[in-house]
Write a structure and sequence with these properties.
Blueprint (H helix, E strand, L loop, with lengths): L2 H8 L4 H9 L7 H32 L2
Length: 64
């Protein structure tokens, strides 16, 4: 696989999973902080989606 193809994969939505597979069982010193930030960002995205869903539901209730 070329470096360009790998870079394209890492930039995709599956990039973190690809990086996890590449890192494998190795856990460099920077990995825990990086993985934690990625996990936190995912939780924040889900939380924002839930907040938007709550606001939509409230607007629906207000229109009754």
């Amino acid at each position: 696989m070329s470096a360009d193809a790998l870079a394209e994969l890492l930039r995709s939505d599956a990039g973190f999973e690809i990086l996890q597979a590449i890192v494998g069982e190795a856990r460099p010193s920077w990995w825990p902080a990086f993985a934690g930030e990625v996990k936190a960002a995912g939780i924040e995205r889900r939380l924002e989606a839930i907040r938007a869903e709550i606001e939509d539901a409230k607007r629906g209730l207000a229109q009754r």
